[in-house]
Amino acid sequence: MGAKVYQYPAHRRRRGGRVTRETFDRDLLRLQEDVAAMGARAGEAIHRAVAALADRDLVAAEVVIAEDEQIDAVHMELEERCMRLLATQQPMARDLRTIASVFAITIDIERMADHAEGISRATKRLGREPLVKPLVDIPKMDEIVQEMLREALGAFRTHDADRATRMAEKDDLVDSLRSKVFRDLLEIMIRDPATVPRALELVLIAQHLERAADHITNVGERVVYMVTGQLRELNV
Fold first, then answer.
1. 28 with 96: CB under 8 angstroms?
2. Is the CB of residue 203 less than 8 Å from the CB of residue 180?
3. Mean pLDDT of 194-218
4. Which of 42, 69, 92, 207 could form a disulfide with 112 if both were Cys (CB 3.0 to 4.6 A apart)?
5. Cα distance between residue 116 and residue 227, in whole Å
6. Which helix (H) or strand (E) segment is 101 a member of?
């Protein structure tokens, strides 16, 4: 007769499974909260970068540049936590979509922070030289970017695909303002070629903001995928 294999009582097995699932749910929720916090931090960096440009505050611009490494470090930590959840748990299909979405969203957020750094570097290159045109459209772009980010992160927190879809519609406004900035600056450069270096820095800043809005739209797409399982482009 073979050795008897001990079986845990059924109630113990159920309890053990429940504790494991509760731990997984808690870790996944904390991961999502930390991703949202990283997103808010990247948005703040963009806003402070534009404010540094408006105030011609080179010290503030340098602070934004220095903080980019900190956001990069958060990005790496969050990616590692995604991988750990996949390796140590047995997530279901919806959990897999959430983890995959979180992984992708951290990449877009990290790139948003890179655009904040890019704006600040352009501000430093401009230095104290006078701007070739008043800052009107660039702050408007930042305002819309901040609105989009708040909506995207809100949709991410609440798993609201409709809210994410509506948010992405605002990307067209950012694109239109970027085109207007380019047209206005092109006219200035044609009239006075001496303005070209300074004007190109403003064109670059507008492009950074446009790309930040694109990354936020990507976040919205991942929210839709996380909720519905459908990966599709928004605001095509």
1. no
2. no
3. 97
4. 42
5. 29
6. helix 93-126
102, 82 in Cβ contact below 8 A? yes
| pLDDT of 206 higher than 70 | yes
Strand, helix or coil at 27? helix
**Residue 130 to residue 192: CA distance in whole angstroms:** 14
The alpha carbon of residue 105 and the mean position of all alpha carbons in its chain are separated, in whole angstroms, by 7
Token pair 């994410």 in the structure block, residue? 164
CB 32 within 8 A of CB 102: yes
Domains and CATH numbers, the chain: 13-228 (1.20.58.220)
Residues 6+ apart with CB under 8 A from 6: none
Tokens in use for 113?
């922070």
Distance CA 120, CA 155 (A): 29
